[in-house]
Amino acid sequence: MTLSGKLSLALILGSTALLPAAAMAQADWPTQPVRVIVPFGAGGAADTLARLISDELSRTFGQQFVVENLTGAGGVIALSQLTQARPDGYTLGVNNISTTVIAPAINPNVTYDPETDFTYIAMLGGSPTVWVANPSVGVDSVEGLVEYAQASSTIPGYGSPGAGTLSHLIALKYFDDIGLPMEHIAYGGAGAAFLDVVAGHIPLASGTLSTASPFIDAGQVVPVVLSTEERDPALPDVPTFAELGHPELTSTTWFGFVGPADLPEDIVEKLNTEINRILDLPTVQERLEPEGLVGDRMTADEFAQYQADQYALWGPIAAAAEIEQ
Amino acid sequence: MEFFDHLALGAEVALQPHNLFFCLIGALVGTLIGVLPGIGPVATLSILLPLTFHLEPTSALIMLAGIYYGAQYGGSTTAILVNLPGEASSVITCIDGYEMAKQGRAGAALAIAALGSLFAGIVATILLMLFAPPLASIALQFGPAEYFSLMLLGLATAIVLSQGSLLRAFAMVLMGLLLGTIGTDATTGAQRLTFGMIELSDGIDFVPVAVGLFAIPEIIRNLEFPEARSVVNTKITSILPTREDLARSWKAVLRGTGIGSLLGILPGSGALISSFAAYVAEKRFSKTPDRFGKGAIEGVAAPEAANNASAQMSFVPLLTLGIPGSATLAVMAGAMTMQGIRPGPEVMTTRPDLFWGLIVSMFVGNLMLVIINLPLIGIWVSMLKVPYRLLYLVILVMCCVGVFTVNSSPFDLVLLCIFSLLGIGLRKWKFEMAPLILAFILGPLIEEHLRRAMLISNGDPSVFVTRPISLVFLVLIVALIGAVALPQIRKRRDEAVAE
């Protein structure tokens, strides 16, 4: 037997011998620090969520949960890395609707399959989409918007946080369904789009409610319609898409907690229970207030199902939108 | 009077011992990262942000703001000493600052940069206190059409900046524009020139380009021609600026402060354009424009004042509209949100202690920075006496570390190699880097605003001339290009100057 033959034999024996040990390690997971990969930069909603949750998880499990920001390609690079990690519970990450629902549907360079390459652990919630109009336009309802657009001599534009964002797709689908021609104008983020509505450069924008709230509260823009399930108590006069007969547009720009595929069930269970508890803590709620997150707590199975449903719903819409990434 | 009430409220917060402490830490860290080549404020703020998680919001913001404007002070240090811009806005400081260093006047350049920045910082902070809300409404006047024309004006200054052949400058502008198109098309989401590489889909980062084009070719040249290492060989004259330096600089500082305060209000590339605009204005106003590019102290004073003024003023859109004007300020906005404070118009009314405390801390921080920086000048300058065979290794390693830390991406190091080779080649053939960098940064913005303006107007290009602010910028562009491109005008003026 050659030296390399001996080596591989030893490796095979060694790895089989390690199997029960690995299984045992799960029972008292975690025994070492856990990496939490955040696909976006420090200070964003994903980062805040990850840090708040990791802080509490470290306290509960007695091991450090270390947040690592890995930016680039709209989060796709970080999630690709996560799928390469060993499913031992020591590498976890944050996903969102754009990285595991929209990007895989439209970007041929995405190498992972959202249906098989992840273990979905917990749903963290998200901010709904709101449409806002400049007050001088005189639009405060979708009917008003349709009238305004039809009376206009040119095709009115609407701003969005960017091509292929959920807020863009919602507007695209709705205008397509009712057959209203509107010009899409992409901005680099919801804030910039709302600012141009405030200044009157564009009449309408579709974006996240959390970003729009300060402008709505200050009366600088008029909310038109919301993508929540039921009316927002803070905006009782603003109807939902569901009320307008489009329940499929009920959605949020949501975030989730994920791991690589085939994560042991007991670890997923532990994490899901803990994260759901953490999200309801008053101290955490207080910190998350500006992010405007809504959404029901889900079990891991419910979250996996939700991800699959979202992929089935928005994937084709995004692909049909001819956003060629 | 309201102003003094605000000042008193702010002082009460900012002068608390623990806030003074965090202000000092911010100023120190800012200076440090400004001085370390390649490590920019965005990376530093991102790294330090988690540490502020458990701090009280006001202290956290005071410290982060200190890092932000501290880096503006420090950024000029590497630009002057080793021809390495730490940030886009100090690209311009390299031109005359590094020339001054070569002539042994690095100390004077650093001192003028620090004093000019102090003056600009204080003036801008006073403006911020007095006029924040009305200034925000000026920013709102700028729609896509206005931004397009302003950015185009910024690009036109690239031509004025060129010292040598116009054709070469033009070629560099085109190359910069091309490099800027790499990445995801903002309007359609299409991938452009990414060759299937996911790492390119966000476009190329500024840091590997700047380090590759400026710092590395400089190192190679110094190694290739040991006699050219004049920074080291020249006898370093007085560290303090001479009376003549001050006489030449003070007007430049005033004009730079004005330009920076005005352009800083605009979210986007305010700081960058203001430093270029201030430099071009100086060159135009100067009775001896030929001195520019050969170590003119005004060429350091004006852009440094402008970029510090605009750094201070860029808090206007952040604090009054909730719009971060740059990547660095976006991290600041993140820090506020993380503390449960939503940046926006209501910060001033719901958290006046934080708002005015932060602003007053800027006075304190600017003073601290000058106190930290002036004595350090001697130390920085004496570092140039370190044997170059040791110094260049340190610079090289710091550059690589800096490039890597931006995105923790090994791919950026590959880009650094590519741009270093490009930079070495371009330098050999006497092409200038500043027009390339300017076009690289402004190109994507120009395109974005052009397409947005055209979509809003349904394809009618007349918006650019019917909107008055936009028209003014376009007229300035024509005037600027006319003045440079028509050789007879140039010749006549040169003769007039010679007399």
Automatic annotation (TrEMBL), chain A:
Superkingdom, natural source: Bacteria
Keywords of this entry: Signal
Signal peptide: 1-25
Organism from which the protein derives: Pelagibacterium lacus
Protein name from the UniProt record: Tripartite tricarboxylate transporter substrate binding protein
Record family assignment: Belongs to the UPF0065 (bug) family.
Pfam families hit by this protein: TctC
InterPro entries xref list: BUG, Bug_dom1
From TrEMBL, chain B:
Domain DUF112 stretches: 20-438
Source taxon at top rank: Bacteria
InterPro entries for this protein: DUF112_TM
Assigned keywords, A-Z: Membrane, Transmembrane, Transmembrane helix
One Pfam family linked to the record: TctA
Keyword Transmembrane helix: yes
Name this polypeptide is given: Tripartite tricarboxylate transporter permease
Organism: Pelagibacterium lacus
